[in-house]
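hey team, just a heads up i'm posting the complex here instead of the shared drive bc the drive is being weird again. everything in one block, sequence lines first with there labels, then the predicted structure for the whole assembly after. its three chains so it's a bit long, scroll down
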Amino acid sequence: MKRMTAILAAALVAVANPAFAEPGVGEDTIRIGIFAPLTGSASIFGRAAFGAEAVYNEVNEKGGIHGRKIEVVREDDGCDAARAISAVRKLTAQDDVFLIHGGVCSGTVMAVRDDLERQNVPFVILGAASAGIVKPFKKNLFQPIPNSDVVATQMVDFAMSKPGTAKIALISHTDEWGETNSRVATEHLKKAYGLDISLKLALERSTTDATPQILQLRNAQPDFVLAMLYPAETALLVRDAHKFGMTTPILGNFGVSLEDTRDRVGDMAAMANFYTFYAYEPALSSAEIEPWTKMITKYFPDHRADTFSYEAMGGALAVIEALKQAGPDLTRDKFIAAMESIKDFQSGILNTPITFSADDHAGVNGGAMIAYRDGKPTVLKTWSE
Amino acid sequence: METNDFFFRVEDVHVHYGKAAALSGVSLGVRRSEVVTLLGANGSGKTTLLNTVSGFLPLTAGDVRIEGRSIRGQAPHAVVRAGVVQVSQYRDLFPQLSVRDNLVLGAAVRGDDSDEALEGVYAKFPRLKERHAQKAITLSGGEQQMLAIGRALMTRPEIILLDEPSAGLAPMFVDEIARIMRELKDEGRTMLLVEQNMRLAMNIADRFYILRDGVVREEGHCDHLRANFDALAREHYL
Amino acid sequence: MFAQLVASGLVQGSIYAVIALGMTVLFRSTGVVHFGYGAFFMAGAFAVYVFSQVVGMAFVLAFLAAVAVLVLVGMAFERVLVRPIVHGPHVTVAMMTVAMSYLLTGVARFFWGQEVLRMPPIVDVPPIFVGSIVLTAQDLLIIAGCMALVVAFFLFFARTKLGKLMQAASQVPRGAALVGINVPGFHMAMWGVVAGIAAVAGTLVAPVTMLYPDMGAHLLIKAFAAMTFGGFGNLGGAVLGGLLIGLAEQLAGFYISTALIDIFAYLVIIVVLIVLPNGILGKKEATRV
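-- predicted structure starts here --
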């Protein structure tokens, strides 16, 4: 009977308490929805979800934000637009989350972003790097990772940072992703350095051999090869380049991890001329990245951390910063305003500070490259470093 | 009639195509080295019976026995392995293989593919020997019938079921087939011969059964058939 | 340059040829067009991976175990999934093979959806230089293994009684039953055999392509192109078609445009179907599908 009364009383309080009318915000909780591909072939990118969740758990352990603890609801979208739509509906309608920190595949983000805009649910991107996500501008949507335009630009700048670079070749998938990256790189090369791409090649997805491409590259002898390719095909290119003795440096895109490429190529010698885009301050496998890894494995002991595990940690820290700034009377509008006020936010994990403004929600405007030097992953801002 | 010496017997076999009865309790028997002919008009159930015996059609009731062993419900290859070999109306040859390969494959599972066995068939069908390297598909209808019979002989059958061997053949070949049938009979082969051509059948067979609407209507020695040919033909074929 | 392209084209072409060979053997012996054959190939590669890298068997043993497992899987699929519907329309069986593909891919995704697995090369030696041509030992193994399979099947079908029987059983199943051949049993055996071929192909190719659940889908299209090019159902045609497509991809990719490589297979299918519907080696009879 006593218990019954207690439940009734609790129910009454919940119904009658108007102070926390904002969705997902309770007296001592803030609910955040995460969606990402946790299974399926894109799940290596979905690892970002665990990094973000670890950051939220960590802030809870340190007392939370204005007395509130973050409650994470995690959904699997399998990198599938339809599944993402239903995951997001569940998060907003059923779980009643305050904000969403999700989306690793651009297609899933595109599928849900208009709906979230209508509902004015703050939508912080977890790992989707397409520059198209923040174009056109949406008030509720933030991208706290380097997007594809930033990556393509950085690849060109890195190549040009080597004294005497005159010929840059580009190899790309012919899908929308590959073409967009290629266009941005080509335009930046022209605009900033007055150069044209010297040779443009195609490499299709699921290809098992890159002999014609490598032979053409070997003939053309460019100073750099920009590879707008997915991980498997990047590894194929690196492997075949080594097979045919090509020593031209190959620059990989954001989605391509150095360690994963090494595992796929299976030959350290082949990795000597491979560089890939890198978003973080500490190098992979370094002592400096260890605390970040430990933060993840503390909450997810089975997690095998690699490049993508850290991808959303900077964004999660920015979210926490904005939640703090928004104050105890938390509303979605206040949170969005606080996000827009974030300037030069040093997350410690990303190598470029996060900056948002009222009309620009692409938060990370730079990056670096990473390559093996003496067998160790080394972060390089410019060629000569 | 004395029936307990039947070497091959069909006992009260019922077969249905969907709901329609194709055979409604057919019983017949063949003694060793006997040639029995199964007569009847189109649609009387003759081919259905052979295909049921051979395992291509399921029977709803009844039994089929060879030397007392039931082969009821066995798969076609198992029936052949038991020694019951059909020479079908469609001949079912391997069209892209040579005459020789067709014969050799006849003995693939049962029988004897030695050169002697092959020569034995060639002796009966000199035409096949002439055409031994030709693809089966290039043979004339009569030659194909010879090849089908030859292939069946290669399995060393206990009993051969022949489904209208003269059907669709030129008169010259019909005579040839009749000659071969008689030769096989003289060798002591056991045969169940389904024929439309009553004259051909009664000149070779020892006994006959007449099937109509899935039931045996008449049976007896071929002497009886010869004696009452016109009456029986009128009664059961018209 | 040309020689290198030819060499690489032969390696790629051998892979296509062997997949096309497996599909042709099954088509010839059972009349089934196997849309799930790419998944069989994938399953073979994963089986070798599991036996050699997870279980830790020596490579040769792992290879034999993988072939054995695939043979059993192929036979089980025939017995359980195909035989009950084999008398239905062709399209029903074809759809079943599509379902098999999804089934196997789904199982692989369940266990290895997260990662792309690397299969170490069968022999780990530095690349070999023949004049200006670079070939890895794996390349040579692929060519040798594929050609050995091709020759073995040619001899089997053309020379052995069993091979002739298998073709006979496929062309005239009733006739085969009438000489005592267990036709359903034959079909089951052939499903096992072609699944075994897929395992061999998977083993040879996996170190080159790396392992992921969808690795077979890409090859399936190439194999179809090879079969169409050479004449559907023609063993020699499938092999020749595979080699020619491999060569053409490399040469066109280098001398015309790298963008051509991947659409080449589709172009072949379209052009051949319109201009040369029976393929380069096909005869009239090969078109009865």
